[in-house]
Amino acid sequence: MPTPEISVIGISGIPEIRPGADLAGLIAMSAKKQKLQISSEDILVVTQKIVSKAEGQEVKLADVKPSKFATDYAKQWNKDPRQVEVVLRESKRIVKMDIGVMITETHHGFICANSGVDMSNASKDGVAMLLPKDPDASARNIRDGITRATRSSPAVIISDTFGRPWRDGQTNIAIGIAGMDAMVDYRGQKDTRGAELKVTLIAAVDELASAAELVMGKTIGVPVALIRGYKYKSGPGTYKTLLYRPEVDLFR
Amino acid sequence: MPTPEISVIGISGIPEIRPGADLAGLIAMSAKKQKLQISSEDILVVTQKIVSKAEGQEVKLADVKPSKFATDYAKQWNKDPRQVEVVLRESKRIVKMDIGVMITETHHGFICANSGVDMSNASKDGVAMLLPKDPDASARNIRDGITRATRSSPAVIISDTFGRPWRDGQTNIAIGIAGMDAMVDYRGQKDTRGAELKVTLIAAVDELASAAELVMGKTIGVPVALIRGYKYKSGPGTYKTLLYRPEVDLFR
User: Fold this and answer.
1) What CATH fold (topology level) applies to the domain A7-55+132-245?
2) Interface mutation target, options B198, B227, B228, B231, chain A, most CBs of A under 10 Å
3) CA within 20 to 30 Å of A214's CA: B44, B83, B97, B195, which one?
4) Where in chain A are the domains?
5) How far apart, in whole angstroms, are the C-alpha atoms of residue A226 and residue A148?
6) Is the ipTM reported for this complex over the cut 0.90?
7) Which residues from B are below 8 Å from A248, CB to CB?
């Protein structure tokens, strides 16, 4: 058996992204400068931050008029009521709201802190960055753009960094997918000795997003990674496959 | 800036593991056969299954006498009462027990389904595989053995595949660590434009375990992966860093 080997290669040199930027074009250009030829067997992982920026998914806090609920909660926990208001607007359900932490279900169905809203630029620029409206569409757009620029159609994953219950620290996960199945399904398969498998449904796109984070880091200006050598299963793909079904969700 | 690049290389050819096996010696030998020279800058990810086997962490179901509680619950959900009994013995707390699913806190402090007990061999061999008693010690033992065999001291991660609340599918995470810090801490750092970072504490060992899973798969006989090119922070390391602190746990 040949040894399986995967490479995770950071793509750097992507300029500061502004609303309306041609993200795919910029990624293709940066890859080319690195002498990296993108192939249809590759997977591109693109961090949510630059996707949201290119899509203009930001809210000026000066324009936000907080509700009474947001104002009361903000006062209680010493928060900016406009930031609380943005989190509430981006959510369809509050899962938990305690000790100053808001765990919400976003309109997409992601369950995460603060509806995935990024406040890290709030104090500097006065803006809150929102998740893409339809992250699968964002991934498809990037994929189409890459195809136009390179004639190759890699799978594309939009990644974000989420915390998780009962385990400290955050990890990168997939919030948008194009060109590949989200999961690897082992149901009904046996191991080398003929025993049933303990694990049946692997969230491969989340593992790929995590692998990409290892080269992205947070401060080094690498918002995109190319993963090579992983045999993904082609398909349209959607983040919806990863959303938990309410009927088997023990923690609703 | 040089382009960051990471390789994830599967180590195959490791024979069926029996209790008492010299796991580090077998890994070193298999790597050598692959002409893979292990260095102290590398990270070895070893799947829990072969660690538990080498440590004899199995229970013969024929020897298990289930309690009344286990028997009643098993009957209600059409389960093997001896399997339920093993799960209960491996837990210090039941987090949730509903619709036939047991989410427990193990004696180590991991919160997962079935106390991490692997029943996949139960019907075939009549045994339940338990998690290692002290997975950090398991990682240290493997690291020491690799050092003896190769004179290099890579970081070692013991990985297992866990589900997670509110997100379908399972991913590989770290349950034991030796030679590296579990987390990358960005607290107090700024991004390239001088803004605060949204994300502050990355569970790097979990992301490394996830990256390793991409070459391990589940059926292809690759229980170990070597990760090269990731600059980890040396330290003793422990899975305890990843356990959620009860005082900030919203979901207890």
Assistant:
1) 60s Ribosomal Protein L30; Chain: A; (3.30.1330)
2) B198
3) B195
4) 7-55+132-245, 58-129
5) 18
6) yes
7) 99
Contact (Cβ atoms closer than 8 angstroms) between residue B74 and residue B84: yes
Query: Residue A45 pLDDT > 70, yes or no?
Result: yes
Helix spans in A77-203 (H): 81-89, 122-125, 135-150
Task: Report residue A6: phi and psi, to 5°.
Answer: -125, 140
Q: d(Cα B175, Cα B107) in Å, to the nearest integer?
A: 13
Q: Which range, of A128-137, B104-113, B196-205, averages the lowest pLDDT?
A: B196-205
**Average pLDDT over every residue of A16-30:** 96
Q: What's the Cα-to-Cα distance from A84 to each of A76, A78, A125, rounded to whole Å?
A: 12, 11, 17
Q: What is the DSSP string of B2-34?
A: PPPEEEEEEE--PPPP-TT--HHHHHHHHHHHT
Give the whole-angstrom CA distance, residue A139 versus residue A51.
Answer: 9
- Structural fold of domain A58-129: CofE-like fold (3.90.1660)
Any idea which residue has 């190769």 for tokens?
A: B150
Residue in A96, A200, A204 nearest the CB of B251 = A96
**Percent of residues, chain B, with pLDDT higher than 70:** 95
* Assigned CATH for B7-57+131-245: 3.30.1330.100
State yes or no: pLDDT of A151 exceeds 80: yes
Cite the DSSP H helix spans in chain B: 23-33, 48-54, 68-77, 81-89, 122-125, 135-150, 204-216
Partners of A206 on chain B (C-beta within 8 Å) are 167, 169, 171, 210
Model confidence at A1: pLDDT above 60: no
The answer to whether B207 contacts A203, with C-beta atoms less than 8 Å apart, is: no
pLDDT digits (tens, 9 = 90+) for B216-234: 977 778 999 999 999 999 9
Distances from the Cα of B232 to the Cα of B43, B111, B166, B184, angstroms: 8, 26, 30, 9
